[in-house]
Amino acid sequence: MSSSNEQRSYAEALFNVCKQSDPDALCLRLAALLQVCAQPDTRAMAAILLRRLLTRDDSFVWPRLNVSTHSSIKSVPLNQIQVETAQSLSKKLCDTVSELASSILPENGWPELFPFMFQCVSSDSPRLQEALELLIELGGRLLTWWVLCCRLRRQNHLRKEFFTWQLNL
């Protein structure tokens, strides 16, 4: 995040070398920055760079990553959405999740995403509800359909609990 063009060019060249030579290490280090770095600007840049790697274009590295990296890359952003307090960073995390979801959900490549979204639907936490809205906004029709189904399921469950409670009176 340097203002020097020379430093930025060097950093981008290094990023591209790492992307080609060891995408697993690059993705895992970016994910680690999301978890442990105290500086919000650095976490934001890590989320942006991770999203770039997970965007289905010429730089898409997902198919080249090993299974353990897949697991980490799917869990870290979901965990960080739950604890991140900076709204702008939460949005960047949701962007990353949405980008990856658009690539791997059609092949059922992220079964953990829907339970996370159900947790958001069921939560009283404004942070999780806002994250869910961002994911829906970014994720399009598939996520919207899923959330509607969950909300109906939750309403039906609440109705069932209510009627069971009424019968027990």
Structure description:
This protein has 169 residues and is mainly alpha-helical. It has a single domain (5-168), classed as Alpha Horseshoe (Leucine-rich Repeat Variant). It is built from 8 helices and no strands. The protein has helices spanning 5-21, 23-36, 40-54, 67-83, 87-104, 113-122, 126-139, 141-168. Helix 1 crosses helix 2 (23-36), helix 4 (67-83) packs antiparallel against helix 5 (87-104) and helix 7 (126-139) packs across helix 8. The protein is globular, with a radius of gyration of 19 Å. It starts with a helix and ends with a helix. The mean pLDDT is 84. It is found in: Cytoplasm; Nucleus. Pfam families: TPR_IPO5. One of its GO terms (biological process) is protein import into nucleus. This is IPO4/5-like TPR repeats domain-containing protein. InterPro entries: ARM-like, ARM-type_fold, Importin_beta, TPR_IPO4/5.
In a nutshell, what does this entry contain?
With 169 residues, the protein is an all-alpha fold. The protein has helices spanning 5-21, 23-36, 40-54, 67-83, 87-104, 113-122, 126-139, 141-168.
Structural key phrases:
169 residues; mainly alpha; Leucine-rich Repeat Variant; 8 helices; TPR_IPO4/5; repeat
